[in-house]
Amino acid sequence: MITKKNTRIRKEEIIQATFAVIGSRGMHGLTIAAIAEEAGMSEANIYRHFGGKTDILLALAEFIGSAVMGKAAAIAAGSRKPLEKLETIFFSHVELIAEMPGIPRFVFSEDVQRGEPQLAEAIAFRIGAYVETLAGIIAAGIVEEELRRSLQPRETAVTLLGMIQMTALRWSIGKASFDMKDEATRLWSNFLRLVTDR
């Protein structure tokens, strides 16, 4: 007997399929037909769960908010030391991008930059919240004397996020021509030298 999948599972499958299409074909190759083919379902089934392409793109923004920003907030609320929190957030973000190359291609796309205003606002809001989360951890690290007292929390947070974004952009443009995790390890080591007295 075939068990019918619930709406939540179907939506997750569509989101994963959409990221896969973007990762392999770019935003220009993203169509409902391509998503349906990748997800192994009919186009009618896609429309049963989403009103159209814009709704799917907003769902991608929500997924990123949960997978990256939401996870960072959960780590920030934990009991680990600030530097350990930052390291965990940094490498988990890099790992997610390595596993889902569609994420940077989506975030850096024209659709987000100059397309649907609601989509741009959703991404901008989540990035802003992410920076604030990182800044809070950095501020705690300064108070606990893990980080240099001269650091500005928000600017340091933007620097850390910029490391991830620039690496993701280079990796995406270069079609994964280098090992992102190896690059991240080198960048993190350098970041530590800049922000600590080690």
TrEMBL record:
The keyword Cell inner membrane does not apply. The keyword 4Fe-4S does not apply. InterPro entries: Cro/C1-type_HTH, Homeodomain-like_sf, HTH-type_TetR-like_transc_reg, HTH_TetR, KstR2_TetR_C, Tet_transcr_reg_TetR-rel_C_sf. Residues 8-68 form the HTH tetR-type domain. Keywords: DNA-binding, Transcription, Transcription regulation. Residues 31-50 bind DNA. This is TetR family transcriptional regulator. The lineage of its organism: Bacteria, Pseudomonadati, Thermodesulfobacteriota, Desulfuromonadia, Geobacterales.
